[in-house]
Specification:
The protein is an alpha+beta fold. The protein has 10 helices and 5 strands. A hairpin with a 6-residue loop joins strand 4 (about 85-90) and strand 5. The relative contact order is 0.15.
């Protein structure tokens, strides 16, 4: 029987740092995750002809939030000065909000979208017009499928949750550790986060070369 050793520090609500040994059967069975590479994300954002969806794809990828969570975010939940977005965490027993940092590029996109569409602080971040409901999962997915087929030649397993998987793998490949990633994704069980290690390993050689270059520079 295969065993997997995982270091669980105090941040994950353990009284003491300890080694937890999981049996293989403890891990949730999952089909292969479908995700976009960083270049595919950039292609979608740069080439999609509809400005609204450029903005949507950027928000989905950078926040790594679930679409249901983003649909509840209003412009008043955005701290422009500190580049942070307040997001209500779903799939939790308690009502929990988290504050997600975002880039200067996303800040510019948010401000531009709000200005061009004459939106106010009470409007939803994913709304097309002032006073309207945010776009639905189905609406975003419909356009995403068209863009993936046109620009990436992808037509299977296309859905908005793919952005969340893509963000997780991108962060792992860019020096974000498992504990930090668990916190970012708000996984109550680290086993859900460990799933992404399988895909980060595809860039193992690059990670080693990067580490070596950092040491010898």
């Amino acid at each position: 029987m295969e065993l997997v050793e995982v270091f669980i520090p105090e941040i994950i609500k353990k009284k003491k740092s300890e080694i937890v040994v999981y049996k293989k059967k403890d891990f949730k069975k999952t089909n292969d995750l479908k995700y976009f590479t960083a270049n595919e994300i950039k292609t979608l954002i740069l080439k999609t002809e509809k400005g609204f969806y450029k903005y949507i794809y950027q928000v989905l990828f950078e926040t790594g939030a679930r679409i249901e969570e983003l649909r509840e975010v209003r412009f008043k939940d955005i701290d422009i000065e500190n580049n942070r977005m307040r997001v209500k965490t779903l799939k939790q027993k308690e009502l929990i909000y988290r504050s997600l940092p975002f880039s200067a590029e996303l800040k510019a996109a948010l401000l531009q979208y709000k200005l061009l569409n004459e939106l106010c602080n009470d409007d939803f971040v994913l709304a097309k017009k002032a006073g309207k409901a945010p776009l639905t999962r189905q609406g975003i997915t419909t356009q995403l499928k068209k863009d993936c087929l046109k620009y990436l030649d992808l037509k299977n397993n296309i859905n908005v949750h793919r952005f969340r998987h893509s963000r997780a793998i991108f962060l792992l490949n860019n020096k974000v550790n498992l504990v930090q990633l668990q916190k970012f994704l708000v996984h109550s069980d680290i086993r859900n986060t460990l799933i992404y290690l399988k895909y980060a390993d595809e860039h193992f050689d690059n990670a080693i070369h990067t580490a070596n270059n950092e040491f010898y520079k």
